[in-house]
Amino acid sequence: MLLDKKNALLERDSNGELLPVNVKLETLDDDVEVILKPMSKGELAEISNNSKLNNNIDGDDIKIISKFCVKPVFTDDEVKFLKPIISQAIIIALLSVSTGLNQKNLANKLKDKINKISEAEDLMNQKKN
User: Fold this and answer.
1) Is residue 3 domain-resident?
2) DSSP at 12
3) CB neighbours of residue 100 within 10 Å
């Protein structure tokens, strides 16, 4: 089967801006959707270079969710008080819609990375003691 450009390209408006899309939060048990503006390649690169995302999305989730979650709109203060599972689901959905990767695979990779970091931190703490 030949690759269809419609499925390969992120949709843009007449000014070249990425268009928001409805995205199901697949890592949640409920059937919940949000509207997200996909990230550009440059924005993805900036986030992938940020080690905080590889640990436990803390301060960066405020900037990311506030900027890319179109509906519902969250203020910075509201994002601070989002349940961790919700903020993680939104971040994973955003990465999925921006890259085309499967949400559940992304969630598993993120969990694996967090586990490896936690194991390394545990080993370092054991060596200190």
Assistant:
1) no
2) B
3) 11
Note whether residue 4 is domain-resident: no
Number of domains observed in the structure of the chain: 1
pTM score, whole prediction: 0.75
Domain that holds residue 27: 9-128
Nearest-CA neighbor of 65 among 37, 46, 85? 37
- Is the separation of the CB atoms in 54 and 70 below 8 Å? no
In a domain, 76, yes or no: yes
The number of residues in the chain equals 129
Output the CA torsion 34→58→56→43 (10° steps). Answer: 60
pLDDT per residue as tens digits for the range 66-104: 899 999 999 888 988 888 888 889 998 998 898 888 888
**Is residue 1 situated within a structural domain?**
no
Q: What are the tokens at 55?
A: 């640990």
